[in-house]
Amino acid sequence: MITAVINARTKSERLPEKHLLKIGNKSLFEHVIDQLLFSKIVSQIYLATGPKKNNYKYVNFLKKKYPNKIRYFHHNDESDVTKRIHLLSKKISTKYTLLISGDCPLLDLDFIRRLYNALKSNPSYDFIRTKKVLIHEGIELFKTSAWKKVFINSSKKIFKENPGYILKLQPKKFNILKYKHLAYENQKKFRISVDTQSDIEFLNYLYLRLKKNRKKFCLKNILQLKKVNILNDHVWQRKPDEKKINIKIITNKNYKVGLGNFKRAQFLRRELSERYYCSTEICTLNKNIRKKISNFQLKDIIIIDLNKNDLKKLVPAVSKFKKVLIVDNFVNKIKFKTLIPNHITPKPEKNIYGGLNYLILDRKIDYTNLTYENKSKKIKKLLIIGGSFSVDPEINEFMNFNKKSLRIIVGPFVKKSTIKRLINDKFKLILNPTDIYSYIKSSKQIFSRFGVSVFECIGLKKKPIVFLKYNLKDNKIINTLYKKNYINIYKKKKIKIKKNINIQKCYLNFNKFFKKNFIE
Predict the structure, then answer these.
(1) Of the residues 9, 104, 216, 219, which has the maximum number of CB atoms within 10 A of its CB?
(2) Are residues 136 and 151 in the same domain?
(3) How far apart are CA 436 and CA 296, in angstroms?
(4) Residue 73 above 80 pLDDT?
(5) Average pLDDT for residues 346-353, to the nearest whole number?
(6) Within a domain: 192
(7) What would you report as the CA-atom Rg of the chain, rounded to the nearest whole angstrom?
(8) What's the CA dihedral at 467, 469, 471, 472 to 10 degrees?
C-alpha cells in the first residue's frame, strides 16, 4: 500500500492560497483528495506544509471538508521542502510513498497504479521515473526509506527548495527504475498544473467544455478534446536555478484620476509575473512614494503608468534608473522608453512604441469570450462612465433621455451623494460589479466615455458607442477607432461592420518589445 503526501503551502509567489481556488465547483485540494480517496492502493493521506501560523487556512479547510481522513505535518522552515518530506517519511509506515504537488488537480489513478506495480515488482529499485516529459505533473513514487538519501544529498539551496530535483540532475546516485510510458502519456500538449490565474482559467475552460458534453473532468477526457484554446501557453515554468527579476509598477487610483491607470497596471503585473520569473510590485502614488523609490535597486525595472501631471512630478526621482518604461504619456523621449498603447503615428519614432497592436488588456477577456453563457435577461442599454463618474453635458443629456431602458455601471470612487442623487432620480445602477464583463456581454447596446472600458468592450466582441462631443483630448484616437470599425460614435452614422482586438497578439508584441529593451 501507499501513503500519499500532498505538498502545499499558502505562500505561493504568483498565486497565493491557490489550492483553495476552484475548478468547476471543487477546489484544487478537493480534486486531488477525492481521487486519492477513490484509489484502492492509497491507505493514508498527509498534507505536508509549512509553519502552522502561515498555513492554518489550509488545515482548517481540509479538517472541515474531510474530518478524520487526512493527517497533517508542519515544518517550520517554509523553503526546505526536501527536509519537510524527510522528517515526515520517518512517521510513514507504508513501504511506498506517493509525493503529490497539491497544485496538479488532474491525477491519473491508472498511471499511479502502473508506477506502483512496476516498482513493487522490482524491489531492488527505490524510485521510478522517465527521462521523457510526460503529460503528468507533480507525481513522484518512491520507497519511503529511500528519501533519506535524497535529503542527505540535497545540501544546496536549489535541492532543498525543489524536492526530488537532485534525482533529475544526479540520477546515478540513486536506484531509479525506468518507467515505460503508454502512448497517451507522451503528449505534452499543455500545462495542467496551477501556478497562475491563466492556469486556473484554462482548467476551468476545459472543465466547462467537458461538462457541456456531460463528461467527467479527468485527464483522459481532456486529451480527447479537439480544437483546444490554450489560454496558458504563455506561462513560463521557472527553472530551479533561474534568477529573479524585480519589477516595480508605479500607478495611481482615486476619484480624480479614476481607475484606468491602476487597472492597466494590474493587467501588466499579471502578464509579467506569468511570463517571467519576477517579483512584480504595484506601488500606488502617495506622499511616501519618493522614499519608496529611493529604496529600489538600480537594476530594478521601473514601469510608470500615471497621468501627465503626476508623471512630471515623479520624473526626477526615477531618472537615476537605467530601465524605465513610461506608459501612455510622453516625457523625456530621449532618456526613457515610452509605450503608448493607443498611439496612432504615421512614422516610427525613436524610443516610442505603440498602436492598437500594443494594447494592454485583461487576459480574462479571452476566457470570458470562450465560456460566457447568458443566463439572465439581456440589458437593452448599458452605460459605462469610469470609476469616478465623469459626466459631460452630452452624457447627461443621453442619461435623461434613456432613463427607462438604461442601466449605469457605477465605479468604486463615485461619491455616496452622487449615488443617492441618481437613485432618487430613478436611474437603475449596477454598483461596482465584481464581474463587469458579464454585464458587457449581456448588453445589446453599450455606451461609454472613452477609456480602458472601450477597449475591454471591443475585446469582448462588442461594439461600444463612444461619446465624443466634449472630449477634445481623445478626439483623434476616437475618430481613428470609428474609421477602423472598432466603435461607433454617439449621434454619428452607425457602422454595422464589427472589428475585434486580438489580445494574445497584443501581448506577443508587448513582450517582444519588453524582452528586447528590458530583459536581454
Answers:
(1) 9
(2) yes
(3) 35
(4) yes
(5) 71
(6) no
(7) 27
(8) 150
Give the CATH number, domain containing residue 387: 3.40.50.2000
Model pTM score: 0.93
- Rounded to the nearest 10 degrees, the angle between the axes of helix 452-459 and helix 260-275 is 50
CA gap 438, 382 in Å, rounded: 12
71 and 179, same domain (yes or no): yes
Measured CA to CA, the distance from residue 102 to residue 12 in angstroms comes to: 12
* Contact between 363 and 231 (Cβ < 8 Å): yes
Using DSSP's 3-state secondary structure scheme, residue 70 falls into coil
Q: What are 281's three cell numbers? A: 510590485
Q: What is the CATH number of the domain that holds 300?
A: 3.40.50
Average pLDDT estimate for 363-382 = 92
| Residue 48, phi then psi, degrees to nearest 5 | -105, 115
Assigned domain for 207 exists: no
* CA distance linking residue 13 with residue 36, whole number of Å: 27
Residues 404, 463: one domain?
yes
| Per-residue confidence (pLDDT) for residue 140, from 0 to 100 | 96
User: For cell 521523457, what's the residue?
Assistant: 132
Under 8 Å between Cβ of 329 and 343: no
Instruction: Express as a percent the part of the chain with pLDDT over 90.
Output: 79
**Are residues 426 and 348 both part of a single domain?**
no
On the question of pLDDT at 344 being above 70, the answer is no
DSSP state of 41: S
Regarding beta strands 96-101 and 139-143, do their DSSP bridges make them parallel or antiparallel, or are they unpaired? Answer: antiparallel
**168 and 180 inside one domain:** yes
CB 487 within 8 A of CB 458: yes
Task: Give exposure, 106-122, as e/b (b: 16+ Cβ within 10 Å).
Answer: bbbbebbebbbebbbee
pLDDT digits (tens, 9 = 90+) for 208-239: 999 999 999 999 999 999 999 999 999 998 88
Asked if 79 and 178 sit in the same domain, the reply is yes
The pLDDT of residue 345 is above 70 = no
- Residue 57 cell numbers, joined: 487556512
- Are 247 and 283 in contact by the 8 Å Cβ rule? The answer is no
Distance of CA 229 to the CA centre of its chain: 16
For residue range 262-272, list pLDDT tens digits in order. Answer: 999 999 999 99
Residues 437/365, Cβ–Cβ less than 8 Å: yes
For residue 76, the enclosing domain spans: 2-185
Helix, strand, coil percentages, rounded to 5, for the chain: 40, 20, 45
Domain count, the chain: 3
The cell for 127 is 524510485
pLDDT at 348: 61
